[in-house]
Structures are given as C-alpha cells and as structure tokens.
Amino acid sequence: MEIIHVAAECYPVAKAGGLGDVVGALPKYQADLGHVTKVVMPMYRTKFLYNHQWELVHEGEQFLGSQSFHYAVIKEKTNTLGFDLYLVDINGLLDREKIYGYNDDTERFMAFQIAVCDWMNKWQHKPSVVHCHDHHTGLIPFMMQHCFAFRDKLARIPTVFTVHNAQYQGWMGWDKNHYIPYYDTWKTGLLEWDKNINPLASAIKCAWKVTTVSHSYLDELKQEANGLQHLFEYEKGKSYGILNGIDTQVWDPHTDSMIVKNYGSELVEKGKWKNKKELAGQFGLDPNKPLVSFIGRLVGEKAADLLPEAISQSIYQHHGNVNFLVLGSGDPNVEDRLDNMKHHFSGYYNSFIGYSEQLSHLIYAGSDFLLMPSRVEPCGLNQLYALRYGTVPMVRNVGGLRDTVTDMGDPQGFGIRFDQASVNDITYSVGRAIDLYNNKHELYHWMRSHMMEIDHSWEGSAQQYIDLYISLQ
Fold this sequence. Notes:
Rossmann fold, elongated, 6-stranded parallel sheet, 17 helices, 2 domains, 9-stranded mixed sheet
C-alpha cells in the first residue's frame, strides 16, 4: 500500500506535542511492515530543515480566496526517518520558526491543505489512502470529494482522519468561506457546525473512517467533545479507537544516549539510582526521597493549574518526605507560580520552565513517579514513556490513561490511579506513592520490573491501521 500521512507536526522535524510523536513513529512502523509511507507537512524554519539535504519535486500555483500563492514541495533525500518526508513551502505563510501561535494560522493551514490537494491532483497515480491528522488537515477530506478542482481525481481515494485532541477544532467564520476552492454549495452542511466552519467536524463527516487515539477517549467524546459530542455519537459506526504506541527505538533505557546510565528491567534499581542522583544534583533535590515529576504543557487540560497548590500541600502534609520536579511551559500565570515556588520550597521542589528533549529523557529515567492529573487525555504518551523507564505513573482515571495504567490495588497493578482532577486527589495519591516507596519495597521493585516489560510499541497499532486501510480498498 501507499499511505500518505498529512499533519502539522512530525518528530523530529517539528513537534509541539503528542501529535508530532505519533506522526514521527507510525509511518516508520508501517514502512517496516512493507508499505510505502509518506509524510507531508508544512516547511517550518527548523534545525532539521537546515541540517538535511532536499530536492525539489513539485511547484504549483493556487488561490487562497482571490489571492494567488506559489508553493513548492521538497523531499528529504536520505530517508533518514524511515519514510519519505515531504515539506510544503509557501513563502510568507509556512516558512516560520513556530508551528502555531500566529494571528493568521487559519490562512496558513488553509493554504497548506489546498497545496496538498493540488499536488496530489497532479500525480499520475492514486495513493492507497490519505490519512489526515487533527483539524489542521481537517478540510482535506471535504476538498478531495467536493471541490470542483480536485474531485474528479481525488474523490475515490479513501481518507482516514485521526482525532488526537478534539478540544481544538480550527473554527472559522463564514466570512472565510471564500478561502475554500469552489464547491457545490449544496454541500455547505458538511463544513458547518454551530454556525461556523468547523474543520474537525467536517473531517468527521467526510472522512471514510475516523479514529481516536484510545478506546476510552472515543467513548468519552460521545459525552463531552467541546460541542461535537452529538456528531461523534452520530458517526460512531465509522469510528474506531486505536491506542497510540511509542517508538521503542527512541525510548529505550538500554540504549538511550540522553541518560547517564543505561539499564534494563533486570538492573532497574541501579540504573535508575544513577540517573536519579544526576537529576537530583542538577536541581538541588535529595535523591534519598521519592521523586514525583510532571512533564507536559502547563495548560488547563493537563490540570497544570492545580500543580502549585497540590505540590505545596503535599510537601506540608507529608512533612517534606517527597521531592517534586516540573518540566513544561504554557500558561504564563502557571509558569510564574511554579517559578516563584522554587525559593520557598528549596530542596523539596524545582522546575524547568520551557522544554528540553534531553532533560525529559533524564527525568523519565531518574524519577520514581510521573504525575499526570489531566482533565482531558486522549491517549497520553508520557505514561507509556514512564512505564518503559520503570517510573510508576500516577494518573487520573481518564481517556488513554485509563486504558494503559492499572492501579496497584489490583493484583497485577503497576500504577496509581485517582478519579478527580483535584488538589485533594493528587495529595492523597502522593501519600500512596510515599508509602509504596518507603514501606513496600518488594512490590515496588516488582512493579518497576514488570512495567518495563509491557509492550507498548507501535507494531500492533500500526497493523490495526493497516487493517483499517485494507477494509476501504
């Protein structure tokens, strides 16, 4: 099969979150299964762009409303990622350092989607499937089927759309309808939701199949989906939950070059201790105390706003018998509160406001517990990385966290789960973690070794996607 993945992110080219990790790994594992996989994404000005060799494969002209634009498609020459990588360059729109966060993001990603459709329309053959990811590519299934310029050649190509996070939908007013290439106005209802053009809703309506990144998240979206719950219920017949995997070549404590001491499940105690000592030394913490870490975006859906009070209360209530470390960025108010706490709780808590891929690997290797109190978690990859590195996940019972972490109260349990995104539930769970760390050494060591052996690689999930594509042929 020839599989075209279209997305706004792909690790290590450009990544803002879990979407980038998925698009950087799934095509590689599908290629390993014997398929031709291609990733198409915008050309941002990143280190990856300047550190690799490229060839021009296509140039074209299209319109964004009444304004014409030129686009170019370049291909990475060496297949360094294990699949064919194509970048779409639109001068003045896509060639910027950041992925998101510009006032004209609507125009940027609309032009990108039009360029992708126009390029595929020029191909002499048809790919087996076009797999679109999140709202930044959500109008492609509609344009392939209903825009006059594309539908003759593209309408019969199967499309799959994956919802990585339904909170972000790409809404735009009808005043921007003229951006979309000419289409039959009888099809306007396929674009609309709640009196706006909604790219996510359009993709759910128009794609041949829809997937979410965990089974529980698909169920939850029928109850709460930022206004789209009735649509998810209506389209449930073509919707599937396929759990994300992790790239076990990148996330492997046996070979990880970003950590101080490599280790496996048989040497987990010694390996984690060496990494913990390094981590504690860098951040002024006590390596003899249990270390609870948080890695992620400091935003409401991750419940990051609860961290300052939850950390403070946990330190006081548990008499300073625990250390905390936070790595992330996001809400400036949360950033400031976490930063200001460093002086008050020196020796018990520290933070790194920003993001460092290398530091994140060391934190997974050196921490005892990883805290994920998320209000919304479609799949979650951090808990899977934690399991791989023998770090006990402390997670809220939601979405993909529910699907991947079993509470230690179960005979085969290997994590700590709690029900509410609240300071009290977090503080209580920290107490459970301290007790596990101090008083249940045999269970703790078994859990760490056991969780490292759980297979969360992409092989199984990649095959599930292949089976889904085959059903559309």
